[in-house]
Amino acid sequence: MMAAMAAEHLIVYGGSFDPVHVGHLIPALRAREILAADRVLFLPANRSPFKMKQHPGASGPQRLEMLRLAMVGVAGCAADERELHRAGPSYTVETLRELHAERPGVRLTLLLGADQLQMLHGWKGIGEILDMAAVAILPRMTGMAADFSSVRRHLGDATAKRLEAGLLATPLVGISATEVRARVRAGLSVRFWVPEGVAGFIAREGLYG
């Protein structure tokens, strides 16, 4: 009798990616290795519910194209554009529902930066999210410990312990999209901050200047 095939394991990594940079890519690739996942899905948000007053520097199609350029020749990564086609804010719970409907039996892991822990209780459908996906946490800055106190206070001790167990030992890359945009505005090089194809696209499109 043939052994049953293992369920597909996808890492779901959402964000503005405005632009995508090595601080996104290196930890995500390491997370895939640590978790032995099949793929990382990068999902650029139409608008983050927590950033509704902020206007993105690049359009949705531009941010999607930068992700695709960043992943040229990189196995196990893909850009998923579904959230860009939804009107209004992008809700993770809707994305996870769709992925489960499209891929029955899929195993999902939601990849979050540690800075999201403080606002996690405010996410739409957070209980359903935690039922549909495991959660892996990326540390953000050297010397800055992930703070689970807000999770413990709002979502309970059991949830905090579950998320603490998902903290990954991924590389700490102290780069932000805000810094990348600021360097472009200042006329400074972003070589090595973003993949070469992304740097070329920023220059060709005149982004962030």
How would you portray this structure in words?
This protein is of the alpha/beta class and 209 residues long. It has one domain: HUPs (Rossmann fold, 3-Layer(aba) Sandwich). It is 37% helix and 13% strand. A five-stranded parallel beta sheet has the order 3-2-1-4-5, with helices on both faces. β4, α4 and β5 form a beta-alpha-beta unit. α2 (60-70) packs antiparallel against α8 (196-205). The longest helix is centred in the first third of the chain and has 14 residues, at 22-35. The termini are far apart.
DSSP strand (E) fraction?
Answer: 5-15%
Instruction: Estimate nothing, just give the exact number of structural domains.
Output: 1
Supply the CATH class: Alpha Beta
Structural class: alpha/beta
**Rg result:** 17 Å
Give the helices and strands as they follow along the chain: EHEHEHEHEHHHH
What average pLDDT do the residues reach? 92
The major sheet is characterized as: 5 strands, parallel
Number of strands: 5
Share of helix, binned? 25-40%
Number of helices: 8
Annotated CATH homologous superfamily:
HUPs
| Termini gap | 61 Å
Residue runs with pLDDT of under 50 for 5 or more positions:
none
| Strands in their spatial order, largest beta sheet | 3-2-1-4-5
What is the name of the CATH architecture?
A: 3-Layer(aba) Sandwich
CATH topology type: Rossmann fold
* Principal-axes shape call: globular
